[in-house]
Write a structure and sequence with these properties.
The structure is a single chain. The chain has 456 residues and is an alpha/beta fold. It has helices spanning 11-19, 27-37, 52-61, 79-92, 110-116, 128-137, 153-158, 162-171, 187-196, 225-236, 248-260, 274-285, 319-326, 347-357, 396-404, 433-442; strands at residues 42-46, 72-75, 101-104, 123-126, 147-150, 177-182, 201-205, 213-219, 241-244, 265-268, 291-294, 309-312, 336-342, 381-386, 414-419, 424-429, 452-454. The strands form three sheets. Strands 3-4-2-5-6-1-7 form a seven-stranded parallel beta sheet, sandwiched between helices. α3 crosses α4 (79-92) and α13 crosses α14 (347-357). The longest helix has 14 residues, at 79-92. It is globular and about 65 Å long.
């Protein structure tokens, strides 16, 4: 892997990388950045966690004129991924004066976003449906667009965004540079690329399940899957784990069953309102929830660090989806476990996965934990909600200062802090949560009193 100094980056981006102590390129950055900086179209295949966001983030920022109109657009399949992309790009742009980045996704009234676009950003990250709404309404203008990025392109096609993407491309200049990033290269992706990319440079990096992920399969009949799942969690005792189900109803049922067995567990699926989705993800990321039971809407785009175990409660409907699920663990050189519960009628799907992985599946006998046993463990942290956020000029440092200052909470017992427009979340050690809650209610944050409550 090469040094970032080997790239022809503008000084503000070099300064940002130095401030972030970013001194080594990942393989996808090493291969994709040179053509991106040269203005070439790129089609890149790389799994989640490979560093692709930094690759296209640096590529688009290198072409931005911070005094100009909208010049870079990143399309993502989900609101969660849009937020993650925005959070990854902002630190890279910190030394570009007056640069504005906006995130435009559903779940927020269109009127509110239209008002925010009076001062047009140079960079926009958003979901295809909402971006198309703005283009058709006239609140977004792509005539000056220089770079268009499709992140998790295969997932966007899976979610039915192909027509919206084609419509968005029609609003962009014909000479706009395009970068298409995808975990897989099915025929539909290549067809999409051929429609609007010009002689793209192809980059392929470590796309299959990496060597550090141990795959294990367990033959279990449907009625015993809950006991088998509880047995696996009791055996491995992961600090954090994702459990994948094929339906929204199953995520709710499995989460309820694990909760009854004493686990700190939440469900994530497409029926949740935006605030509920935000709060589920905040609690899972900050270790206030140990187990996230999810449908495949959560299989990509969630930047969860150090996830040691994923469990497939149902065998994935296709091999690529299994690879995407498994890829949530074993990231950044860490080892990981991908455990699959397979009923007799799911054996055909397992055979397809075996062919995709290119090696025999490892089958083991399941260990069951009957429902009467409360084998679960409480998460190490709890989340406090403060009814104030970015619109109140609240910063993480203000919350940390209030906790470690007048509240007297050791900094080591304060976890992640997430700031949204009108609310903020802070994780504190479970044993300290009541004390922290009482002190914050009694005291002030940034000289003001705000409502504070425990998120349960």
């Amino acid at each position: 892997m090469s040094d970032p100094s080997s790239l022809s980056l503008p000084p503000p981006l070099v300064q940002a990388l130095a401030a972030l102590s970013f001194d080594t390129l990942t393989p996808v950055q090493e291969q994709a950045l040179p053509p991106l900086l040269d203005g070439r179209d790129v089609i890149a295949q790389a799994r989640t966690g490979s560093g692709k966001t930094v690759a296209f983030g640096l590529g688009l920022l290198a072409r931005i004129d911070a005094a100009g109109p909208l010049q870079a657009l990143v399309l993502t399949p989900t609101r969660e991924l849009a937020d993650q992309v925005g959070k990854a790009i902002r630190p890279l742009a910190r030394f570009l004066p007056n640069l504005k980045l906006s995130i435009l996704c559903g779940g927020v009234p269109l009127r509110v976003q239209v008002e925010s676009l009076v001062h047009m950003p140079q960079v926009v990250v958003g979901t295809p449906g909402r971006i198309l709404e703005h283009l058709e309404k006239g609140s977004l203008e792509l005539s000056a667009l220089r770079v268009l990025v499709l992140d998790e392109a295969d997932r966007m096609l899976d979610m039915g965004f192909a027509d919206a993407i084609r419509s968005i491309v029609k609003f962009a200049p014909r000479d706009c540079q395009t970068a298409l990033f995808s975990a897989t290269f099915p025929e539909a992706i290549r067809a999409l690329s051929s429609e609007f990319q010009r002689d793209p440079v192809e980059v392929t990096v470590d796309v299959d399940a990496p060597a550090e992920i141990v795959q294990r399969f367990y033959e279990v009949e449907p009625e015993r899957k809950l006991d088998a799942l509880a047995g696996l969690l009791a055996e491995h005792k992961p600090e954090s784990a994702m459990v994948f189900c094929n339906t929204r109803r199953d995520t709710q049922d499995v989460a309820a069953a694990l909760d009854a067995r004493g686990h700190s567990v939440l469900a994530l699926h497409g029926d949740l309102e935006q605030r509920d989705r935000d709060e589920v993800l905040v609690r899972f990321a900050n270790r206030s929830c140990s187990i996230l039971v999810a449908t495949d809407v959560a299989a990509r785009g969630l930047d969860i660090e150090d996830l040691p175990v994923v469990v497939m409660y149902d065998v994935a409907s296709d091999a690529d989806t299994h690879v995407h699920r498994s890829g949530r663990t074993g990231r950044a050189g860490r080892s990981g476990l991908a455990l699959t519960l397979c009923s007799a009628r799911e054996k055909t799907r397992a055979a397809v996965i075996e062919e995709r992985l290119g090696k025999p599946l490892r089958w083991e006998a399941p260990k069951f934990a009957p429902g009467k046993l409360r084998t679960g463990q409480l998460a190490p942290m709890q989340t406090l909600v403060i009814d104030a956020g970015r619109k109140d000029k609240l910063r993480p440092a203000d919350i940390l200062g209030a906790l470690t200052g007048s509240a007297g909470i050791p900094g080591s017992e304060v976890g992640k802090i997430a700031i949204f427009d009108t609310r903020a979340y802070v994780a504190v050690a479970r044993d300290t949560a009541e004390k922290a809650l009482a002190r914050l209610r009694e005291g002030k944050i940034k000289g003001r009193s705000f409502r504070v409550r425990k998120l349960v």
